[in-house]
C-alpha cells in the first residue's frame, strides 16, 4: 500500500516536471539579447503627470495583445513583433528583390525600436493633424504600431484626444509644456524684443510679429526632447499638421536609423530667409570658438558654408519632417550648443527657426555619415514636395505624388549640395527636374 502511493507521488512529480519544462520552452525569449535601443529598454524614463493614455485596442502593444497562457505546448504563444526579438532574424525589406517586400498587410513581424512619433499642436489643429496621422498610419504605422506623443502649451481638450487616439495604432500620450519652456527667459529685454516684432511686421516678414511662433521655434530647438514623456524614448519622428506621405514605407525607418548609426535625417532642404537670422552665424562661430571639443572633425561644414565657415550659405534641412536620435539631442554637445545660442537671444531679437538651429547642429556636431536623406519617404509640407526621382522607384513604392512637383533638384533646394558634399551619386533623370 505504502509502495503503491509512493509510485503515484512519483508519477505526479514526473508529470509536473514535464509540464513545467514544456511551459518554459513555449515561453522562452530570444537567445541573443536585443540592444538597449530596441524597445525592451522602454520604461527607464520618467512619466509625466500630464500623461494620458489614449487608445488601447488590439495590436497596439505587444503585452496587451499577447495571447493568454496556453497549456498546449505546440508552438510559441508570444507575438512575433515588438520587444525582445533578435533583429538578425528579421531582415528588413529595403528593395523589391528582398523577401517580404510585398508583405504590406497585417502587423509586421520583427523587433521594434524604442521610438515614437511626436507632434506639437494646438487644439485647433485637430483636423489638420488628423489628416497627417491618417497618411502616416496608412503608409507605415498601421503595420508597426509605434506610439505617438502630442505636446501643447495648453491642456489638450477631449475632442483632440478622442480624434487622435482613434487614428493612431500605437499608444497615444498627451503632455502639457511647462511655462519655463514656453516663455521669455529672464535675460531677454522685452522692449527690445517688441520693437523687433513691430519692425518685422512692417517689413512683412512671415511670422515676424508673432510671439507664439518664437516660443514654438525655441521649444522645438531646445525643449521638446526633454519633456518627461519624451524621456521614455530613444528616437523620434516629427509630424506636423497637414503634411502628406505619398509612397508606401516598406521598412522601419526607426530601425534603419538605429542599425545604421544615423542620428538625424531629412527629406527636404532649402535656403533660410536671411531676414530671420542675420546674426545666427555669428552666434554659431562664437560657440565653435568656445567649444571646439564639440565640433566633429568629419563634419558637414561644406553643406553650410561655401567659404570654409567664414559665412553661412543659409542651407538647412526642413525640420517639419525629422527622424532623429533623442539621445543626441540630449547630449552635452547639443545642450551646450542650444544654451549658447539661447543666451545670445536671437529667438526673440530676430526670429531664428528651429530648422536652421537643428541643421547647423547636425552639420557641425555629427559625422557626415550620421545624417541621412530618406529618398524613399515622399513628403509634402506647404509649399514643397519631395517626390523620389525615377519612374521605377515611384512604381515600386506605389507613390501618388506628381514627379513634376519634386523640389530636390530645383534652384532653391540645397539637396544637390548635400549630395555633392557627401560624394553621393544623384538619381538618374535629376537633370530633367532642375526647373
Ligand atoms: N501648441 C502649440 N503649437 C503650435 C503653436 N504654434 C505652432 N505650433 C505647432 O508647431 C508646429 C510648427 O508650426 P507651423 O505653424 O506649422 O509653422 P511652419 O511650419 O513654420 O509654418 P506653416 O507654413 O504655417 O506650416 C506645428 O506642429 C504647429 O501645430 C502654438 O502656439 N501652440
Ligand atoms: Mg507647418
UniProtKB/TrEMBL annotation:
Keyword annotations from UniProtKB, A to Z: Glycosyltransferase, Membrane, Transferase, Transmembrane, Transmembrane helix
Name the UniProt record assigns to this protein: Nucleotide-diphospho-sugar transferase
Region called Disordered, residue ranges: 36-92
GO cellular component, one term: membrane
UniProt cross-references to PANTHER family, sorted A to Z: ALPHA-1,2 MANNOSYLTRANSFERASE KTR1 (PTHR31121:SF6)
Record family assignment: Belongs to the glycosyltransferase 15 family.
Record's compositionally biased regions (Low complexity): 37-57
Record's keyword annotation contains Transferase: yes
Transmembrane segments: 7-25
UniProt biased composition (Polar residues): 62-79
Pfam families reported for this sequence: Glyco_transf_15 (PF01793)
GO MF annotations, alphabetized: alpha-1,2-mannosyltransferase activity
GO BP term (any one): cell wall mannoprotein biosynthetic process
